[in-house]
Specification:
- The protein has 213 residues and is mostly helical.
- It folds into two domains: 2-54, Orthogonal Bundle (Arc Repressor Mutant, subunit A); 64-204, Orthogonal Bundle (Tetracycline Repressor, domain 2), CATH 1.10.357.
- Helix content is 75%, strand content 0%.
- The protein contains ten helices and no strands.
- α5 runs parallel beside α8 (120-145), α6 packs antiparallel against α10 (182-204) and α7 (109-118) crosses α8 (120-145).
- Residues 34-53 bind DNA.
- This is TetR/AcrR family transcriptional regulator.
- Residues 11-71 form the HTH tetR-type domain.
Length: 213
């Protein structure tokens, strides 16, 4: 129990620091906020901030592991007879209906994206995270399908699936940033996403289909 309490306290501290940091970043811009300001706002020391977050960029992009694990679950929990593409299609549209942050469907995603684009260091870190998540998904696909170490299919499939979701979700951000109503933009995006997944299905749709017992 004691260990559980310590871990819970650590999670709460990490979340408080991240929340305080995000509030400052949203108000002042990422490059205009120092780690010392974040520490003061969260009532911790600068060293404590770095105990939880390796870099200032990680304070902003603090849900990498959560995102990575969610994609891995989509693969591992696909239904019998369901391919990897079908599982991601189902997850993507469920996320759209729920306003899930993982694909940028949450309120405030446009502001979050704008702050990344305004900061060279955040753009670089976001690209790095995209690569790490893609490689993690590729490793999960290789494990799930029993792929040979020299088989490029897991990495190719991971790149195509996540590339699709990123491109389609960026399209939503462009439309809402341009002033289009969110409901109208989502309705149009749904059709775009269906067409994109249809195209992907015709190419790699059967890949990783779980056997029906």
């Amino acid at each position: 129990m004691e260990e559980g309490l310590r871990e819970r306290k650590k999670r709460e501290t990490r979340r408080r620091i991240a929340d305080m940091a995000m509030g400052l970043f949203m108000t002042k811009g990422f490059d205009n906020v120092t780690v010392a300001e974040v520490a003061r706002a969260a009532d911790v020391s600068v060293n404590t901030v770095f105990n939880y977050f390796g870099t200032k960029e990680d304070l902003f992009l603090d849900r990498e592991q959560e995102l990575q694990e969610s994609y891995d679950r989509v693969v591992r929990e696909r239904a019998p007879g369901e391919s990897v593409v079908e599982a991601f299609r189902r997850d993507y549209f469920a996320a759209m209906d729920a306003g899930d942050w993982r694909y940028g469907f949450n309120e405030g995603a446009d502001v979050f994206s704008r702050l990344i684009m305004e900061s060279p260091s955040l753009r670089a870190r976001a690209r790095e995270i995209d690569h790490l998540i893609t490689m993690s998904l590729a490793a999960t696909l290789a494990e799930e399908t029993g792929a040979d170490p020299d088989d490029l299919a897991p990495e190719l499939v991971a790149g195509q699936i996540l590339g699709l979701t990123r491109v389609v979700s960026r399209h939503l951000l462009r439309r809402t940033t341009a002033g289009e109503g969110r409901r109208e933009a989502l309705a149009a995006l749904r059709e775009q996403a269906r067409a994109a997944f249809d195209r992907l299905e015709s190419g790699i749709g059967g890949y990783g289909r779980r056997p029906v017992e």
